[in-house]
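Entry 12.
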Amino acid sequence: MPSIPFTLRQLEYFEAVAGEGSLAAAAERSRVSAAGLALAIDELERHLGVQLFVRRKGRGMTLTGEGSRMLAHARRVLSGAELLGAEASRAAGSLSGRLSVGCFSTLTPYFLPAILEHFGREHPDVQLDFVEADAASLDELLLRGRIDVALLYRVDVSPQLAFDPVRNYRPHVLVAADHRLAGRKGVRLAELADEPLIALDVNPTRTNTERIFHLLGLEPRVGHVSGNYELVRCLVGRGLGYAVMFQRASADRTYDGHDVRRLTLLDRVPPSLVGLARPAGAPRTARYAALFDMLVSTSGAREGRESIAASAPEVRAGRA
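Predicted 3D structure (tokens):
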């Protein structure tokens, strides 16, 4: 068997420089000197016989075309090495090490507390780190290797990421407790189209809400717009309009002391699919599998969630 002309460490440095775009940032991330990192990259290029980066003084390092192709191979090799270690840990009957979890901002109150409670109790040797961000930032963090996994909605997930579904959420309507329809169990959006809509403007929630109206051939009359989930509930509670929501708060009382009512949306509209994302080609490590299994087993216990096995319309809704 021919000798391998590189080391795993060199591949780790290669991936770090590609992700950071500069030696200084990659050296800080890898906890080595910039000079040592540069030497490792030079040796890797020499052994592989290809130029991986274009070096521009004051402008960092940019992957060449061949470098981009080599990076995909390098990541597979590194993922395989991680899988070997994870499988060894699984064989020993324990999980340990660090797991960095990203979460889409509006999902954090509904998932992260359960992860801390259940996963932390079942796997005390796993160090959990959390990052809360928007979807675009989570995609970038995953591809740069800054986080291991991200919990987010399926829509617009980068093709460079693998996605494992966890749970479907169907949108519902929120109205004030004294609203004319508050005593009903369900409602069609056409019955509310002439009333002001309180729009939750967290990207891309508002777009997805407008998409639902478009699918139903309706035009919403937007009364107020807010990027704050609880403020939307407060405005609804004061009778200033209704809202189309995806996530469900456990209480019907708003922060400012008013009551709201959740009504089932009777229209046939697409659900939102929530799941775990990881870089394409990255293995389902023991830590990843344990987190996924925990989420699937615990998420069904909450009110208003659907099994991912349930049939869904062809058109998908997005993040909420």
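Annotation: Residues 193 and 220 are 6 Å apart (CA to CA). The two ends are 53 Å apart (CA to CA).
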